[in-house]
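User: Sequence recovery, please. Input:
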């Protein structure tokens, strides 16, 4: 069974109403349960659960410490192109925005990789807009090969691809995959993605299955919070993460909790999410999937990111630039979204240490591929 079949069993409107109808008793039952099921998850994401945020966060922290210890894995994104043929209403790379379009050459990608590697970061995510003509599969494969020279762990966050292409990227040196479904509510997705290849909701939805099927060992999921009711999107993301973890046991699953931030398109979310909402979402995810990674990017402020170190985060970006070539020559007007945490890698490493945690710059080596299933 593909995940789309699981998703299609739910009516988003009915689910939202069900989550909204959960009571204090439902939340207390969920918190007392040894294993969190879908009904418990709905209760933990409900408005009623807000008054239980402190015990939820405490339980999530306890599980995180037991499963991950006091560690935070660090990474940086490497944007290789912002050229895009999609019309996503919320994205700075939208084909209609007037940003400078930049696609890096192989040598420029190498320079970016050198700069990131010089900070001590050993994990990188290659990010690109969706334009086959500007940045083909072959160029993406070459970018992976370059990054594999500098980073033991290289992941891709690019357009949805066929399984065979993910397999080629794996053979070129890629170990990980990240893709946000943006919203799991198909009706809202269609409005937000009116034109371009990304308008195919189900093809994007099934991309993590193709990536995991190709053998990529790290699978990152996410919903862009604020596009729809965050409680519904996080519920579906939790089910998606569990599905991947159970069916593709050889892959490590993580979830991101990004909020809409300012971009060149000046999109304003109709359903903004508060800090308390993010804490609730992270805590519910941790209780539902104890072994899942929690990724918190530089979309969040330094103050809030530092708090999330204690509250369940296990993976965090540092020193990020969201425009192609941004590490060598910053051009913020060409970025995908505004960075809220502009601290350098060294500054963020010190913040992690001050919190009593160990910043993990490297947790994987290419030599382990020979022994991986």
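Assistant: Recovered sequence (373 residues):
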């Amino acid at each position: 069974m593909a995940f789309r079949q699981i998703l299609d069993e739910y009516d988003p409107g009915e689910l939202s109403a069900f989550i909204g109808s959960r009571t204090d008793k439902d939340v207390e039952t969920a918190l007392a349960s040894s294993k969190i099921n879908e009904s418990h998850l709905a209760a933990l994401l409900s408005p009623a659960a807000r008054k239980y945020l402190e015990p939820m966060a405490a339980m999530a922290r306890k599980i995180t410490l037991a499963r991950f210890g006091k560690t935070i894995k660090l990474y940086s994104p490497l944007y290789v192109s912002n050229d895009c043929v999609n019309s996503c209403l919320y994205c700075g790379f939208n084909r209609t925005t007037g940003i400078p379009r930049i696609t890096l050459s192989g040598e420029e990608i190498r320079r970016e990789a050198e700069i990131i590697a010089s900070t001590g970061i050993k994990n990188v995510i290659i990010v690109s807009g969706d334009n086959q003509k500007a940045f083909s599969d072959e160029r993406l494969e070459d970018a992976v090969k370059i990054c594999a020279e500098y980073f033991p762990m290289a992941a891709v966050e690019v357009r949805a691809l066929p399984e065979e292409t993910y397999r080629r990227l794996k053979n070129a040196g890629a170990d990980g995959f990240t893709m946000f479904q943006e919203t799991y509510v198909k009706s809202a997705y269609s409005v937000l993605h009116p034109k371009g290849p990304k308008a195919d909701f189900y093809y994007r939805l099934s991309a993590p299955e193709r990536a995991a099927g190709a053998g990529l060992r790290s699978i990152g999921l996410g919903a862009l919070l604020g596009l729809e009711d965050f409680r519904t999107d996080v519920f579906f993301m939790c089910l998606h993460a569990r599905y991947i973890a159970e069916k593709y046991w050889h892959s490590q699953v993580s979830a991101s909790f990004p909020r809409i931030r300012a971009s060149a398109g000046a999109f304003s979310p109709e359903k903004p999410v508060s800090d308390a909402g993010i804490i609730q979402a992270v805590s519910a995810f941790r209780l539902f999937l104890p072994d899942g990674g929690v990724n918190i990017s530089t979309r969040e402020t330094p103050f809030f990111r530092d708090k999330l170190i204690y509250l369940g985060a296990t993976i965090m970006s540092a020193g990020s630039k969201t425009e192609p070539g941004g590490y060598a020559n910053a051009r913020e007007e060409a970025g995908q979204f505004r960075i809220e945490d502009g601290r350098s890698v060294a500054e963020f490493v010190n913040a992690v240490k001050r919190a009593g945690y160990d910043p993990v710059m490297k947790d994987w080596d290419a030599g382990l591929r020979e022994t991986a299933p």
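Strands lie at 71-81, 123-128, 153-157, 176-182, 218-223, 252-256, 293-296, 315-317, 358-360.
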